[in-house]
């Protein structure tokens, strides 16, 4: 991906490749005037546009997407969603914080559920539960801590030893894991395409319409290769790419991460994927490898992190193949059919930036690696704020607000040091 104001994805996302081809909406052309312009058709953008349309049904709303719905990170992710998270501890502060976040999580998740039902969006959403897996001693300690927390909080869970892990997911790689019932898997490209195609009639989506410049000339003026759009109010739903327009450079860091889906396996090979028909594993360390089953006969792995610029494709391929083969040595002959990268936006304190960034210009950015539900609810609440239904205090009390990150070169140096330490700590979880 380049450092231009819009992303350019050199590889096709595997989730999109597995779907039937979709015809993108036509690019923006000519002179366009709208009350609202939303830049980016990921979860944040489609939620903000939908909610603005609900609250202001007579307004014209334009959504401008640089690529297509199904090529951005909204499709490139691993498809793990959950309305609720387990509190970090049983302290009153952690319980209160988790309860506040979970109220938003439930709101976003319920909205997605209602939309998928109303519009018949088949994104293979399944309640699979979730396994936190540990391959190392340090990881096992994390799992043990989670087990104690879940027991204390009365969260239904099951501790899995190596044999139980192998029985469920077919791999002897893990020392142990913690299974919790809360957790869903979905096909992310199917979800974002479905949401984009079901936008209300007063929302006009233009794909392949990268916004190249943004200026205030009375109204906001946005330029794409073939159009000039004038809008009273703009929502930058571009996640970290908002930095290219001069905003939040001291708050957001762009992180590249990578995923692959194997080729379809024969029934004999697929028998190595365990007894559970559908499962997803998150690593015990945050720089570890995510693994999930995809349908009956494929597997997805997600791993690797890079700061502000991508990793060469041959390195990505060999690293992801290594992740897969270490976990499934009996499947060493199975190849990776799709390999792709995507970006997420990290903030120093893990909180998003949400709200106005200029006069009539708003953003919600800084997903910190998990934004299907969070992007949806924060996009929806941003539209509420724009339409005068102010819930800013409630949002900020739950999520906090992205704090300052050191400028370059300190930022790169800091990131390199922290990630080297964390990579060492991640060890076998990677
Ligand atoms: C490999 C990977 C795995 C992940 N796994 C998970 C997971 O399992 N669960 C989860 O919840 N999250 C996961 N995430 C994170 C999740 O994908 C993001 O949090 C989510 O996509 C953020 O949504 P968003 O709408 O805020 O931003 P994005 O989805 O990034 O959408 C922003 C959109 O803006 C567009 N854009 C950018 N610049 C311009 C411009 N100049 N003009 C027009 N359009 C522009 C982009 O093309 C993009 O479509 C993962 C991410 C990656 C990369």
Structure, described:
With 430 residues, this protein is of the alpha+beta class. The protein contains twelve helices and 19 strands. It has helices at residues 14-17, 43-55, 73-76, 92-118, 137-153, 162-169, 188-197, 267-270, 313-327, 372-386, 392-399, 410-426; strands at 30-39, 61-64, 80-81, 126-127, 130-134, 157-161, 176-180, 184-185, 203-206, 213-217, 219-224, 227-236, 252-262, 280-283, 290-294, 298-307, 336-347, 353-358, 361-365. A hairpin with a 1-residue loop joins strand 10 (213-217) and strand 11. The protein starts with 13 loop residues before the first helix and ends with a helix. The structure holds flavin-adenine dinucleotide. The site of flavin-adenine dinucleotide has 41 residues, from helix 2, helix 3, strand 3, strand 13 and strand 17.
Query: Measured on Cα atoms, how large is the radius of gyration?
Result: 21 Å
Low-confidence stretches: none
What is the general shape? globular
Q: How many β-strand stretches?
A: 19
- Mean pLDDT score, rounded? 93
Describe the biggest sheet? 8 strands, mixed
Distinct ligands: flavin-adenine dinucleotide
The helix tally amounts to 12
Provide the β-strand percentage band: 25-35%
Distance between the termini: 24 Å
Which structural class do the helices and strands define? Answer: alpha+beta
The share of residues in helices is 25-40%
């Amino acid at each position: 991906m380049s450092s231009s104001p819009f992303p350019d994805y050199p590889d096709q996302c595997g989730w999109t490749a597995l779907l039937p081809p979709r015809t993108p909406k036509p690019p923006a052309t000519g002179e366009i005037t709208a009350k609202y312009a939303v830049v980016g058709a990921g979860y944040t953008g489609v939620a903000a546009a939908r909610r603005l349309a609900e609250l202001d049904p007579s307004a014209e709303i334009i959504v401008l997407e640089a690529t297509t719905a199904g090529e951005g990170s909204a499709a490139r992710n691993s498809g793990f969603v959950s309305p609720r998270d387990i509190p970090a501890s049983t302290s009153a502060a952690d319980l209160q914080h988790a309860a506040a976040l979970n109220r938003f999580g439930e709101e976003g998740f319920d909205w997605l559920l209602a939309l998928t039902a109303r519009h018949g969006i088949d994104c293979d959403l399944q309640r699979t539960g979730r396994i936190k897996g540990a391959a190392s001693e340090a990881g096992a300690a994390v799992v043990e801590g989670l087990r104690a927390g879940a027991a204390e909080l009365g969260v239904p869970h099951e501790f899995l030893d190596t044999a139980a892990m192998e029985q469920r997911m077919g791999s002897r790689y893990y020392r142990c894991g913690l299974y919790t019932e809360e957790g869903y898997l979905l096909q992310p490209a199917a979800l974002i395409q479905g949401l984009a195609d079901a936008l209300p009639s007063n929302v006009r989506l233009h794909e392949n319409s990268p916004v190249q410049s943004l200026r205030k000339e009375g109204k906001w003026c946005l330029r794409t290769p073939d159009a000039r759009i004038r809008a009273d109010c703009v929502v930058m739903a571009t996640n970290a790419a908002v930095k290219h327009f001069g905003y939040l450079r001291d708050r957001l860091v762009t992180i590249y991460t990578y995923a692959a889906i194997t080729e379809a396996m024969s029934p004999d090979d697929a028998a190595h994927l365990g007894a559970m028909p559908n499962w997803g594993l998150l690593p015990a360390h945050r720089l570890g490898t995510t693994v999930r089953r995809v349908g009956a006969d494929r597997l997805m792995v997600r791993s690797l992190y890079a700061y502000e610029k991508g990793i060469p494709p041959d390195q990505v391929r060999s690293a992801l193949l290594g992740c897969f083969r270490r976990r499934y040595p009996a499947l060493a002959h199975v190849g990776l059919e799709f390999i792709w990268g995507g970006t997420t936006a990290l903030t120093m304190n893990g909180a998003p930036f949400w709200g106005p960034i200029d006069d009539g210009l708003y953003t919600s950015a800084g997903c910190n690696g998990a934004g299907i539900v969070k992007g949806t609810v924060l996009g929806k609440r941003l539209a509420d704020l724009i339409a005068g239904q102010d819930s800013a205090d409630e949002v900020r009390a739950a999520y906090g607000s992205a704090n300052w990150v050191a400028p370059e070169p300190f930022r790169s140096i800091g990131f390199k040091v922290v990630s080297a330490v964390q990579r060492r700590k991640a060890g076998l979880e990677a």
